[in-house]
Predict the 3D structure of the following.
Amino acid sequence: MKRILVVVVLILLPWIQVTQANAQAPAAADIEQGAKNWQGFFGFQNDCKLCHGEHGEGGFSSALAGHQLTNAQFLAAVREGRGTTMPGFSPTKNMNDQQVFQIAAYLRSLPKPAQRSTTWRTPVPPLATPAQKLYIESGCGQCHAQIFANPRRTAGGLGADYEWFKTATYEHTTAPEYADRGHMRMGNYTRQQVPDAKLQEIWKFFSVEQGLRVPMGATVSEGVPSYNTVTYTITVQNGGTVGKGLTAEYITLTLPLLKGRDPEEVTAVVSATTGGGYMGIQRDPITNSNAAIFEIPRLGPRESKTLTITLSGRGSDRGFPTGMLKWE
């Protein structure tokens, strides 16, 4: 047995040395793929650059361009998190080891910046409340911007409470509602990084100062022509969870009509509507054009409203250049 053990060790040591050497001298393909991983692409988005800079030059967090970390050191930082602002990222939900090594290779290949950037993607607004200031300085705002818009939309659809918020922070990659998600952008914070008292203050900003949002949306179909008119179908829906999500009330749908060079010039006009709630043509101050206005009293979770609008005249086949959905 002793001879066999010695032989195994002698064989493995050179292999380990070669593997470590190769890890520090990656192929050009790994560097190229690492650049793609860093920037993110459809199906594999990540937010590393929002804290570390577009090209690893630093910002809210440290500069990584031209780093001299080994793959093992780089991987440990990604998996365990660092300081109080960087979560730990999961190999199954965020980035696997190979993807991390490719990012490390890409950043290592970049020139080291003469001076770390100190520009934050999301600076603290001059009139920020203490809770908003804490939220941004804790790192949340670098990914979620100044007002936590999208997470508040998710929370509103679930009728979320503080327990949900804790799970979303400490157990993000294993939370029940994300079980079927193949890839996620956010990792998991520890209670040492974000103590409960600190998280409660961030929750105050999230749920009280800003408030949960209803996950409302609207889609407009392709126009269906008929003689000299074109009809569009609009579906307005509350995407919340039945029995949990919030209800939207006083819903207003604004559909600006195509305008000519003169803002007062009438091109496409409304010939007919169905579904109710049509309030006529009003001036839309945002687009400086005439707009068709619909009002819907309320939509609960998973409820939807189908409307149609028929246009005639020049430009009726070009649909709507933009639109806006507002609710309370």
In short: Strands lie at 216-220, 224-226, 229-238, 248-256, 269-274, 278-284, 289-299, 304-312, 324-326. The mean pLDDT is 89. The CA atoms of residues 267 and 314 lie 5 Å apart. DSSP finds ten helices and nine strands in the chain.
